[in-house]
Write a structure and sequence with these properties.
The complex is a heterodimer of chains A (295) and B (99).
Chain A: H1 9-24, H2 29-35, H3 38-44, H4 47-59, H5 65-72, H6 74-80, H7 83-97, H8 106-112, H9 117-120, H10 126-129, H11 142-150, H12 158-162, H13 173-176, H14 181-187, H15 190-198, H16 202-205, H17 222-236, H18 250-265
Chain B: H1 3-19, H2 25-31, H3 34-40, H4 43-56, H5 61-67, H6 70-76, H7 79-93
Helix pairs in contact in B: 1-6, 1-7, 2-5, 2-7
Classes of the chains: A mainly alpha (295), B mainly alpha (99).
Chain lengths: 295, 99
């Protein structure tokens, strides 16, 4: 039987490196027999080595690659197996050790990376429009933050950031007007439009129907809507979005009409003795009386 | 496969290749270029290489490999570079074959 010391040159090199690979766990006996197949061994292994191999296999309860390699030994394999085959075996081990033995090469993985389809599953038309380059140039506005906060997937930090952002002064109509349109134009999709609609304050968008037992008539009179209108006004003011500068909605119209009717329907009855003649009152006299006695 | 096992295996391949004259020190430095050595060797080894060369009066591939041993190569140099050295030597020796 050959040993590593009896070999020289490339065969000694292969014997050393392959044996060391087995020792270190870099290779397994199966890795060797993938290249040194039974056909290869039958052609190149001497009959004496075959005799020992057959005997060992017959004696063992199980025949596997380890038994073959342990019986034939790496130096004998490297002594008789053609060098190109040994090289192919060594090269495969090295490729695997260097991490190049994967079926999918890295370039293919990088090419597939930009496709984020499984992440959120937006409509296909949204992905090109919602490129990361669009949002950064424009500072986020209060309306956008409101929209983002209303989204289920909005990150928690968005809510604290929205609190100090609005300026203490009321927004001017010129600034407030284009805000709702900005998200829609940036995304250029129906999703943006639907999200803009979502930004409409809930109390104004759809008045809740109060339960009215026994009264099945729809709420068509102004008097029936009065309580809702009065409750909606304070909720709208802190929103900071004045109705001026944007198209009025049906809800706005109803609120204003309702207030006007309230003022008209309850006139105060005043007696004449309750009236004050301000021209005769000393508290209102600041200078010389007017020539006509009237101010 | 652990990093240590891979390092020891590459050290064995480099040592065996040099011992069996599959490739020589000059072949090694053809791949482990000065840039590769300067980039990857720690300062103490660079200093040692330079000091040995100054003491001998010349820096030769053989002298460099006296300091940059196969074990040092496998530990510090990229294994891709070492494998390129081995593969090129096998190609020159004609042992890669057509397979």
């Amino acid at each position: 039987m050959a040993s590593t010391s009896t070999l020289s040159g490339p065969r000694a090199f292969f014997a050393t490196t392959l044996a060391r690979a087995l020792e270190l766990g870099v290779a397994t006996p199966d890795d060797l027999l993938v290249h040194a197949t039974p056909d290869v061994l039958s052609l190149h292994l001497p009959r004496g080595e075959w005799q020992k191999l057959i005997a060992a296999c017959l004696a063992a309860p199980r025949t596997d690659a380890r038994l073959v390699v342990d019986t034939v030994t790496v130096p004998v394999l490297c002594e008789h197996v053609p060098l190109p085959i040994l090289w192919a075996c060594l090269a495969q081990l090295a490729q695997r050790a260097l991490g190049r033995g994967l079926v999918a090469p890295p370039p293919a993985m990088t090419a597939a990376a930009p496709v984020p389809a499984p992440v959120v599953a937006p409509p296909p038309a949204v992905a090109p429009a919602a490129t990361p380059a669009a949002p950064p140039p424009r500072a986020s506005t209060a309306d956008e933050r409101t929209v983002e906060a209303s989204r289920p997937s909005a990150p928690p930090p968005a809510a604290p950031a929205a609190a100090p952002a609005p300026s203490p002064s009321p927004p001017s109509p010129a600034v407030a007007a284009p805000l709702p349109a900005a998200p829609a134009t940036a995304r250029t999709t129906t999703e943006g439009a639907s999200r803009a609609r979502t930004a409409e304050p809930a109390p104004l968008g759809d008045p809740p129907a109060p339960p009215r037992p026994g009264n099945g008539t729809p709420r068509t009179t102004l008097g029936a809507r009065r309580p809702q209108a009065a409750a909606a006004i304070p909720a709208r003011k802190p929103d900071g979005r004045a109705p001026a500068g944007r198209a009025s909605t049906a809800t706005d119209f109803e609120i204003e009409t309702d207030l006007g009717d309230t003022w008209k329907k309850e006139p105060e009855q005043v007696d004449d003795d309750q009236l004050i003649d301000w021209s005769q009152n000393e508290e209102t006299q600041t200078g010389e009386p007017l020539p006509g006695g009237k101010r | 496969m652990s990093i240590e096992a891979r390092q020891r295996w590459f050290a064995t391949m480099m040592e065996s290749g040099l011992t069996q004259q599959i490739f020589g020190p000059a072949d090694v430095l053809r791949h482990a270029t000065p840039e590769v050595l300067a980039t990857n060797l720690p300062p103490e080894l660079l200093s040692k290489v330079l000091a040995a060369s100054l003491a001998a009066g010349a820096m030769t591939p053989e002298r460099v490999l006296e300091t940059v041993t196969p074990d040092v190569m496998a530990r510090h140099l990229p294994h891709d570079v070492l494998w390129e050295c081995i593969a090129a030597a096998a190609e020159r020796a004609g042992i890669t074959g057509g397979r």
